[in-house]
Design a protein that fits this description.
The chain has five helices and two strands; from the N terminus they run ααααββα. By secondary structure, it is mostly helical.
Length: 169
């Protein structure tokens, strides 16, 4: 999994959807890390949500898919730059890669929310973070046990060495 940077940014009083979307993007580490890159990274998230609703309503899953080009346009960045950001979205499990046959019979590759709703997709992202923390907790328990065993081992070697020292006297 890639580096995930969680923040504790809070919305102001009476936030609108744009502010809330920005806060969500920032809190789960999907904001651009370079200053001045784009202030519109929230737009693909909202667009994916709107498309997911439409796809469900019209019972056409392909309507829920956005290409990288479309995501880049929504965010106000190039397709190539969007590919760079996409890795974090995928690592979190917020979106999934998918393909479908387009109108012109060509295969279209794109991305959709990893759930029927934004909330369902976010729950999968939250689970990825929880899984990471649970694995880290196992490592914490293991290091405690290992440190304890290493100290015991060193203490026993110290006693063995002191017994051996006495035999030589």
């Amino acid at each position: 999994m890639a580096k995930i940077i969680l923040t504790d940014i809070e919305p102001g009083m009476g936030p609108d959807s744009t502010e809330l979307a920005n806060v969500i993007i920032a809190r789960i580490g999907l904001s651009p890390r370079k200053k001045g890159s784009t202030e519109e990274m929230w737009r693909p998230l909202v667009e994916l949500y709107e498309r997911a609703k439409r796809a469900y309503r019209e019972k056409k899953p392909s309507l829920g898919v956005m290409t990288v080009e479309e995501m880049g346009i929504a965010a106000g960045i190039s397709r190539q730059t969007m590919y760079e950001y996409l890795r974090r979205w995928l690592d979190l499990g917020l979106i999934v890669k998918t393909s479908y046959i387009g109108i012109d019979e060509k295969v279209v590759i794109g991305y959709r929310l990893n759930g029927a709703t934004l909330e369902a997709a976010f729950e999968k992202a939250a689970q990825a973070v929880r899984d990471n923390l649970e694995t880290t907790q196992k490592y914490v328990k293991e290091i405690q046990k290992t440190l304890k065993n290493e100290k015991i081992s060193q203490a026993q070697r110290g006693r063995v060495a002191s017994i051996d020292d006495r035999k030589e006297d």
